[in-house]
Amino acid sequence: MAGRREFLTTLGAAALGLAAAPAWAQKINTPRRNGPQPNEFVFARLRYNSGDWDYNPKVAANVLDAVVQYTTIPIYPEEVVITADSEELFAFPFLFMTGHTLVRFSAAERQNLIEYVGNGGLLFSDDCNHDVNGLYAKSFEAEMHRAFPGPETLAKIPNSHPLYKSFFRFPDGAPQTSHELNGWGDDMVHEYLRGIDHKGRLGVLYSNKDYGCEWDYDWRNKRFRTEDNTRFAVNIVVYSMT
Question: Which of 14, 92, 128, 154 would staple 44 via disulfide (CB 3.0–4.6 Å)?
Fold first, then answer.
């Protein structure tokens, strides 16, 4: 419990959209003076200049909470925002990217992402439009074709992929989102995710299912859900770190 309390405290009011941390949290708060440690999972978010990279601000808090609940993986309790051309990009095995609008990388950013994937990193790109014909989807896919040219750059990920059994088991593949079932976006239920492999491992995981909006709620509201919809996020985290 102590580790969980420290996580929730350090995560802080800013990440949860609260005016102030609760009194009990303020009493036990111990500020962290150092950055992430090598054995910690870090929720790193990609900042790109062309679009709304900072959408769904509560995703990091919710995913980190799920990792703490279900695993023994140590976490860094703050979201880290990083640009694609940063030299520090390679320190993070997991990179989250989302948005609604245009995705456009410079030559330097594109090359850095190519090297990031080549070094074993996992870029998780989540289309907030839930629309295969939307601007985010079309421009992101075009960028991936520039970076990783080939006959099928973003290939269908089969339900038998290790991603779907890295922690929890999802025998039917990628879990559906409420946006799909409610007909929001392109009015389609996307039956699979797509990705780019590098040396037998996923280097890019691409979703049109809008997991970001599905996971963008206060972590404390999980107790009202019959089934925790962030469990798939745990699989992505575990896969990225093993």
Answer: 92
